[in-house]
Specification:
homodimer, mainly alpha, Arc Repressor Mutant, subunit A, Tetracycline Repressor, domain 2, 2 domains, DNA-binding
Chain lengths: ~220, ~220
DNA sequence: GCCTTCTTGAACTCATGAGTTCAAATTAGC
DNA sequence: GCTAATTTGAACTCATGAGTTCAAGAAGGC
């Protein structure tokens, strides 16, 4: 019986009993939803991916809709942590500003183009009509916080006289737009690989335009 | 019989026989796919919307996948026409450049945020994994052409000395990024209305940053 | 060791939706 | 008008997937 399951699931022959099933289910759900989309994703497939029986999912999370909500909350939390860490690397002084901006931009882009990052964006957009609350939660709890953090760092640089940012929030939005604006189109919303050199070029170009607009 | 169909379909009591069924089917398909997504859209619903019987769809277009491809090609063609017309309004002289840029930006944004525009983007992204050829066709046939047209106009302004655009293609990309970058997030990929004043603000801000970066 | 609690597998039910079939009705071409 | 092609409605088939049920099995607490 265990052997049959192990053959169907990539997961190791899971220990039985109540361990960290819930976490395993959420991780598997994120992966399968990301790969197949909400509609095409099967609860059975998620169960297999998690190395768990189907009723266990219904015990823990009640149903597909609720499972989706919980999985998205988990994914959003993970993503937010990463992005805020990336913003933390923002330069605080004008010393080698161009290089500093490129480094942060690269970190931010890496968050965006990671499989997890794309999965989150794609599902948010795709299911925005069906799950508006999920969209709002991620957007307000996540997106706004990130923008605020970025704006704060830009304001510091403005204060130090190395940038001209009368409206730091706007500058933060345009920074993100210039850096990440083309990623969706270029990678087909994360379904294509982007050559390293192309990525570096996009970032360098974005930083350049940003500096042309907001530098002193 | 005709009365029963008219009750189910919003379409007028269609004349029978081989008229413009195909066009009606494609228009209905665009609408239903846009509203419900590929997976949730039902062929039966499309038939009802088109005021046509289900077998007629299979006669004309063979199946759901093919119907999707044809509908997307139609939608892309319509969209491209509109966008290229918008680019045509681009200023060619430096006279009142700011106002001219805002006007074009507004036209471009209007194409983007129209229900048809969002439908196209959303479906392209959502189904990029399942229909990569559709994505490529629209992206290369449409996106590239639009970017080229925009770059051409920017190059003229550069030549006239009112803009500093060593790389017109790059400038075109950044123009679009600054103008349309936030629209997806703000409108939840077109599922929310955006207040007119907010939209005007986004455009004005985008043009301002663009001029700061590329103006003389 | 024992009892409670959770997990499992397997076989269900039930709804939905793609695609087909076909005789009857309708239309277009002439 | 007459004929050939097309459209229609309605009733199919068939596959898929959500959610449930239940008896048997496996931890974990004591």
């Amino acid at each position: 019986m265990s052997a049959a399951r192990a053959a169907a699931a990539p997961a190791p022959p899971t220990a039985r009993g109540r361990i960290d099933k819930r976490q395993a289910i959420l991780s598997a759900a994120i992966e399968v939803f990301a790969r197949d989309g909400y509609e095409r994703a099967g609860v059975e497939a998620i169960a297999a991916e998690a190395g768990v029986a189907k009723p266990t999912i219904y015990n823990h999370l009640g149903g597909k809709e609720n499972l989706y909500r919980a999985a998205m909350a988990e994914a959003a939390a993970r993503s937010k942590t990463k992005v805020l860490a990336a913003v933390d690397g923002f330069p605080t002084t004008g010393e080698d500003l161009r290089a500093g901006l490129r480094t942060v931009a690269r970190s931010l882009v890496d968050c965006h183009i990671s499989p997890q990052g794309w999965a989150l964006s794609r599902l948010l957009y795709t299911e925005a009509a069906r799950f508006p609350e999920v969209y709002d939660e991620v957007q307000t709890e996540g997106g706004r916080q990130i923008n605020e953090a970025l704006a704060g760092r830009l304001a510091r640089l403005g204060n130090a006289g190395v940038l001209r940012v009368p409206d730091p929030v706007l500058a933060a939005r345009h920074f993100m737009a210039l850096i990440t604006g083309e990623l969706a189109a270029r990678t087909a919303m994360g379904t294509r690989e982007l050559p390293e050199e192309e990525l570096a070029g996009i970032i360098a170009d974005g930083v350049e335009t940003f500096l042309a607009a907001f530098g002193t």
